[in-house]
Amino acid sequence: MRHIAIIGSGPAGYYTAEACLKQFGDDVRVDILDRMPVPFGLIRSGVAPDHQAIKAVSQRYEAIALTDSVRFVGKLTLGRDVSVAELLALYDDVILATGAPSDQKLGIEGESLPGVVGSAAFVGWYNGHPDYAGLAPKVDGVDAVVVGNGNVALDVARILAKSPAELDGTDIVAHARERLGTAQVRSITILGRRGPHQIGMGAKELSELADLERAAPVIDTADFLPPESDAMLEAGHRKAVAELRRFAEASPQKSVPIRFRFFARPVAISGAGQVERMTVERTLLGQNGGAVGTGQTYEIPAGLVISCIGYRTPPIPGVPYDDQLGRFANVDGRISPGLYCVGWARRGPTGTIGTNKPDGYRIAEQIAKDQPEPGKKQGRSGLDALIAQRDLDIVTFRDWQKIERAEIERARAGAPREKFTAIEEMVEAARG
Ligand code: NAP
Q: Domains (ranges, CATH) in the chain?
């Protein structure tokens, strides 16, 4: 029997478990460990609450979780409750699928002022992640600045812009719905350090800004190259730029403008004890395609700054780490004998949920090549002995199903669930 431990129960973790079942059939046992008492990682706490169709992929992960060969071990923290060395001694293979849950820093003056937050924190807050449930960002009447031109920036701007009615039917947590619903931001500025041709946003995601109840996109046509230049873009990207052009041509009459500012790079944040403004430098597109500063700066009002500029994988003691790239040092997912990484922990924060599927399948094939025959490892029984010896209070998949039922039962009318936002509440529901 081959024993595999996967650390992290998000899309990368579950697709890898699925791939291991396909690769090794009945001869494998997979334990999926997570520091949270609830599974599904980014699906639960990253994907926007108004994107329920994307979240439905968790049903596929549930089917994997309910096979006898796969087990969920929640509320177990690698590096604190159990070490990588201990897992390597117990399992044939240890696969890190820990994602990239830490915010990349802007690295500019004033970044630590209250009112400046990263997207991991802001998204975690409205999605009810226990780490960020207490964030309570000031939104009432503020000019919000969202830094970055990727889909995360769009998620953040859209959730900030939506009215309470538009948040019905979503699983945004009560504390965020109340704050965002009753208070309205004055404006939203989306800042891109390069131009419309360099956005990472998708056409579909952009189109969701088109018909909002109280907010509408505003774009200066001067930021665009002539329309013929769009022909050089790849088809999907061309569609996204076409959406931007449509926004630029429209003249919406809505109370909250969502201003796209291109060729604008944040250089400093300032305010008296709280963010009040951002200094922005005008940029040009350099020869290598990067943003080049012009030295010309201007100020924009900012009562809330949310940087959506990428993420890092937190290091784990004893695991080689590439500090520059912000993820585990690896070659095609291999870290060291028996130790692998997948998903964002391997390749950085790029791609869609589905990108993790081929990633997981590649690692399962790699493992089969690296170690055609499993060793005589203890696997599950060894981990259970450690858990008992350390008196750890873990959460199983059946426990999670109780938590889920409780979240569904307490949902407001029309909403799919009302998530628990504290670990203690989750554990109480699991034991209840
Ligand atoms: P992203 O697409 O890489 O966007 C990051 C943005 O931050 C880029 O515009 C980048 O500009 C900018 N940036 C980086 N450093 C900066 C700095 N120091 N100052 C100013 N701007 C800076 O990443 P993401 O939005 O975090 O999304 C991560 C992945 O998840 C992406 O693959 C995304 O498509 C996916 N996702 C998908 C959805 C969906 O609904 N489909 C939702 C959320 C996320 P440069 O381009 O100039 O580097």
A: 2-101+313-431 (3.40.50.720), 103-307 (3.50.50.60)
- Round to the nearest angstrom and report the end-to-end CA distance of the chain: 35
- 200: CA distance to ligand 1 center in Å? 6
pLDDT in tens, 355-373: 999 999 999 999 999 999 9
pLDDT in tens, 183-231: 889 999 999 999 999 999 999 999 999 999 999 999 998 899 999 999 9
Dihedral angle, C-alpha 260, 262, 266, 267, nearest 10 °: -150
Confirm whether pTM is higher than 0.90: yes
- Residue located nearest, by CA, to atom 15 of ligand 1: 309
Percent of the chain clearing pLDDT 90 (strictly above): 96
Q: Is 150 in the pocket of ligand 1 (CB under 6 A)?
A: yes
How far is it, in rounded angstroms, from Cα 417 to Cα 408? 4
- Interval between CA 146 and ligand 1 midpoint (Å): 11
3-state SS class at 15: helix
- Would you say the CB of residue 205 lies under 6 angstroms from ligand 1? yes
Mutual orientation of helices 423-431 and 397-409 as an angle, nearest 10°?
100
